[in-house]
Every structure is written in C-alpha cells, then in structure tokens.
Q: What sequence folds into this?
C-alpha cells in the first residue's frame, strides 16, 4: 500500500535534486557561454590597431568602363543551360527590350553589387569588422568579420551572405558563403542568372595606388558556371564634396508626395506598369 508521506518526501527530493542539477548545468555552461560571445567589447588596444590598417577612407566610385571591358574580354563560363538563357536576355537587351533584373527593389546582393554597381560606396573600419555601405538604397550593406570567427556550420542564407576576412599585409582577403540561391550573377542590370545555390566568393581587396582600390574576385557557382571565374573591379577614391554619398530609397519612386485632408505631408502609392511607376501626373490624389 502506498505511503503518501513517503511519496511526498520523494517528490520533494526529486524537485530539490532537479533544481540542483539545473543550477549545476547552468553553471557548467557559464564558461562556454562566455567563450561564444561573438561581439566582445573592444579594448583600447583594438581601437589603436585600426591605425595600422591601410587608409580606405573617403567615397569610392566604380570604374564602369572597365566593368564593361572585362565582361567582354573574359565572359563568364556559363554552363550550356545558363548560356542559352543569358543569350536570350542579351538579345532582348540589345533590341531595346531588357527584362530588368533589379526592378523589384530587392538588393543587387552578392556578388552582383561588386560586379556591376554604378554607385559610390564607403568602407568603415571598426574593431573586428569591415563594413561596406552602398549609396543606392539602405540594403547595400556588407559586414565582413575580421575578428577570427569562422562561418556558421549551417548559415541562414541572406542576400549578401556571411563574410569573414583576414588581413594579408595590406590586402583584405574575404571569404563569403551562405548567399541566397535567388541572387543574381549579373553581367548587366538586364542580363544574369540566379546562382541557384552553393555560391562561394573569394575576394582580395587592396590599394593599387593611393587613390585606386582593386577588388579581385573569384566566383565559384557550380550550378551555373563550368569553372571558377576570376575578375577584378576597380574603384576610384573621391574626396570632393560633390561626390558625397547621396541617400537613395528604391521604393520612394513608387510613391507620390501629397498632402492629405488634414494638411499632413504623406506618401501616396502610384500605379505600377511592368514594374515601373506610372508618371505621377497620371496618378492624382484620391
């Protein structure tokens, strides 16, 4: 026959033992939790170390003529299926009927941002990180971690992927994985293919001279390319005020500036046609 007092005692013992085990487990994880902090507070030494890095300050604008020259001189090694689709897009573009890869305000993403951008960018150094900020829309942003961390075992795919870097002298060597398969490997704003997965980009970013920055890229896209493809993109440093970064908000063109019935300044959606806003004049306020 069950003795209720004995049962209650055993239950109380289990609860106390369970709590003790839980506390021990938590304490046991304290050291490992401290070891897995990804962004520890920088020290004075970390900030001082930045002064030893090369000077990449200012605004950098791409050499567009060189982009076009390199694409023609060394075309991407598309596999047969991708090559057929790219040829159709190129013919449409040449005929004046481009399909447009970036009309939906999604990021140009990696690696197309670095390959075909016509916009300026800034490069910021902070302890453990290099940040690239693009001029066109707030979604042109890359974080390159230089604190010695590795890639996640199973990264959540993003538009710009997961980038880790290390300094080889005055060259920043960047390794990027975890890019969404839907992002384009683009030849132009109208010609390109989704990478379709397993994209891997290796960059060596360095000064060619005091005012010229090179980004040497190796692009590994096994779903659409027959071999790794190497190319270079060139950026010029601009310090004049007229080259300062300008805010660009992609979706702003889909709205008209109006005043509502209460006298407040508001944005009003305008109709779209084939991914482009209808002229504001044809979209009167309601």
A:
């Amino acid at each position: 026959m069950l003795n209720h007092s004995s049962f209650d005692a055993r239950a109380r013992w289990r609860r106390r033992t369970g709590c003790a085990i839980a506390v021990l487990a938590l304490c046991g994880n304290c050291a490992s939790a401290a070891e897995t902090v990804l962004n520890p507070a920088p020290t004075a030494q970390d900030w001082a170390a930045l002064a030893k890095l090369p000077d990449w300050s200012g605004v950098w604008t791409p050499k567009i003529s060189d982009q076009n020259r390199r694409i023609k001189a060394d075309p991407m090694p598309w596999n047969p299926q991708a090559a057929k689709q790219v040829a159709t897009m190129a013919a449409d573009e040449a005929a004046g009927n481009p399909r447009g890869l970036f009309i939906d305000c999604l990021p140009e993403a990696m690696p197309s941002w670095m390959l075909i951008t016509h916009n300026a960018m800034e490069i910021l150094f902070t302890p453990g990180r290099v940040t690239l900020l693009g001029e066109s829309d707030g979604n042109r942003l890359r974080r390159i971690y230089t604190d010695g961390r590795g890639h996640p075992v199973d990264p959540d795919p993003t538009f710009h992927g997961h980038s880790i870097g290390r300094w080889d002298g005055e060259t920043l060597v960047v390794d990027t994985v975890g890019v969404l398969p839907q992002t384009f490997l683009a030849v132009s704003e109208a010609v390109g293919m989704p990478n379709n997965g397993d994209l891997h980009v290796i960059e060596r970013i360095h000064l060619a001279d005091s005012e010229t920055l090179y980004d040497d890229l190796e692009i590994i896209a096994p779903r659409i390319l027959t071999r790794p493809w190497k190319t270079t993109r060139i950026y010029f440093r601009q310090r004049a005020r007229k080259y300062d970064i300008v805010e660009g908000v992609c979706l702003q063109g889909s709205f008209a500036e109006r005043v509502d019935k209460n006298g407040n300044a508001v944005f009003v959606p305008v109709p779209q046609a084939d991914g482009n806003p209808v002229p504001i004049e044809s979209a009167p306020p309601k």
Summary: The two ends are 81 Å apart (CA to CA).
